[in-house]
Amino acid sequence: MITARAAASFEPVGRSVASARSFVRDTLQGWGFADIVDDAVVLTSELVTNAVVHAGTSADLLCLRSDEGVRIEVADRYPEREIPLQASAINMGSPDREGGRGLQLCAALAGHWGVEYTPTHKTVWFQLDLPARVVGTRAAGPALPADLLPLADGRVRVAVVQIDRTGHITAWNEDAEDLFGYPAEQVTGKPLTDLAAWPHTPGTSTGIAEALQLSRWEGSYGIRAADGRVTPVYASHLRVRDTGGEPSTVCLLVRDHERAVLQTPLRVPASDTGTTSDGQSTDPFEVFIGYPAPDDLDGLLQRTVERARDMLDGDSAFLLLATDDETELEVRASTGLPSARQRFARVPVEAGSGRYGSARMPAVHDDLTAVPGAVPLLNGTGMRSVVTVPLKVEGRLTGSLGVAAEAPGRYSNEEALRLQFAADRIALAVESARLGELERLRRGSLNFLVEASDLLAGTLDRDQTLALMAQMTVPTLATWCAVYTIAHQASEPYLSYVLHEDEELIDGIKSLLSKVPPPDPVPTPGARVWTAPAEVAHQAALRSSMRSLGLSGGPTHQVTPGIGPTLATASAVGGETVVLPLVARNRVIGMLTLGKPTDEHFRQEILELAEDLSRRAALALDNARLYSERTAISQSLQRSLLPPELPTIEGVEVEVIYRAAGEGNEVGGDFYDVFPIRDGAYGFAIGDVCGTGPNAAAVTGLARHALRLLAREGLSGPAVLERLNSAILDEGARSRFLTLLYGEMRPQEDGSAELKVVCAGHPLPLRLRQDGSVEPAAEPQPLLGVIDDLELYEQRVTLDPGDVLLCVTDGVTERREGARMLGDDGLADVLTTCTGLTAGAVAARIMRAVERFASDAPSDDMAILAMRVPGLHKD
Nearest Cα to 561, choosing from 581, 578, 580, 547? Predict the structure, then answer.
């Protein structure tokens, strides 16, 4: 019956032979078959050489352990062979040939061997039987001449020291007095660590104080004797308890050079000798990991757990890495466990439920059912016995390595020491790879945050900012994301945006979250776990499953649509969910929620990156909010400066087109107005304040409202403008000069319209007659806001039926394309083509001509006022 197996593949390169030898040696040493390692290595080396060197193909190596021995198979992809005739001798080649000696060696060294063929592979296998051992013999050495035996005193003394649960000495025998010179009464009640000359076993990471807490321990340390000299000792500790249940530790100590009296023979890797069977120097790290070693952290950790499992003949293995502050351990690799999705799960080291109480020292648990929760990762996995050892670098905890088995009582202190031996050799490499990964993550994080900041700074639209926040986190940081916003402190969080990497699940997650009370808006920085979505999803999935059982007798199509989305949603949000507050200007304005699917967890580096992103996103979101509020206020104020709807004037068509320069501006320095003055009379105006933007818009508001007020007081056009000029000058430093065309219009019974016009520094109005001729309809006069005493006059104009009066601001006539300008003549040319058009069509054609005159967007405000007297209708 096969009780363990280990497999590896090797590329067709020369170094693969050494890698195969190391793999077999490591595997058999781990299984405890040191007696047959040399023969297995020799045979494997020859067979792998035949495959990768002579046949030029990759080699698949398989080691199988059984009760009878070890079977090793080497398969290559060179299946050509000669089928031997029955009863004919097989030619296995000459011993003097460079290659082809594999079968001869198999016949000479293996108890059983054979060759198997498939259309694609050729497999050579051999089996080595375990040597018979004398009953009761654990280990034995050869007979040696007396001069080669280790040197000892006339009598070997074994000190027996008993330590209570607090580490104080309670018993001290005579041999202890002889070895160290202290009488029993002098040391009883003192901590054993007070006598220690160095704090831990050289080459390991376990201190004496820690070793005294283990169930079994063996190792070296020094005891400072009464004369001040240090006596190196080899110790064997056994943890026991008395009839009252109090634990204590019995320590047996001998001089270090007499350690054979106590030392348990260890099945350490052959790399301890520093050379391989072919005499080449080896690296203990490479012997354990294999050659070539993975160049990435994940590959290194996965290879480590697989080798650790095989070395101790376990059913599973796992490796956890410590956070920078050594407060938590994070699952980074596992093998043989029911679910690989526990990756990045975290547990505290020192305190709290489910902690790893033995993370800082080796520990062996014979039966986890007696100490439930001792290793949280194994809860519910069926594993019963486990051995864990720390990974330490320069005394600092960097991780924990464990091997577990389904059967109880599989591991002892010997296996803990062997695993610690391996852990000490890989700890530095793991930490180096981890630091390299962290450096790459930090560089990637900086690039990510720079790009995120650029994107967030590129918009002031609230909805677009929410979308960017979610799209930057999914799928880079999380599988799904939800953004809650808070309008003001008294309002409840509102679910504003949901995104999942699978768009089909977005609606389901949004529906589920709408049934879950939102997370509390806690301003505390950092990510906190939120369990509500996973719990509600689990309950919903359970209810759906129960309903499906109730409908099990019905057609399938009645069940599937009902439970499919719910179960998919439950799986999507069933993993770890965290909430990060969005804090801007000392106020919580929302929450960023990140989630993983079932059994998945966030790694600490991702949470730290998400926290940095949340701070930037919060400020961008608040800026968008402030911008939206101010834009709304600005637009409301600007709209108040615009005139209401144009009045309907019987017998006259009126059309206005207005364009304010600048993004987001509705009102600028140009303005217009058409309003009733008194019965049958209407005032109209079009003006241009110096400049653009809010400052110019303030003067336009003053001018428009003053015009209406003064005109309705019955003042003439020149009087209205003179008083407006005084009001502008009264503004002092805020005043701006103003060009203005103002007029009064009165439709006549014969279909014409009488106009009184004052043109104060403004582009002259143009009159289009029915015959297509165009002429100015007024004369220029001084502009407003410059001098106190103005002498203005009004001019009378009659618009006959079919005539058009066009009034524009200088943004129209000064439209430029390079050195060219539209000008008054260009405007007149366009107007001559408008004969017979309505006022609306005339205004539209003028605007289209202005826009087409240049490719660039207009840089000045523009206003166009067109008034037309329709022709008389004949019966």
Answer: 547
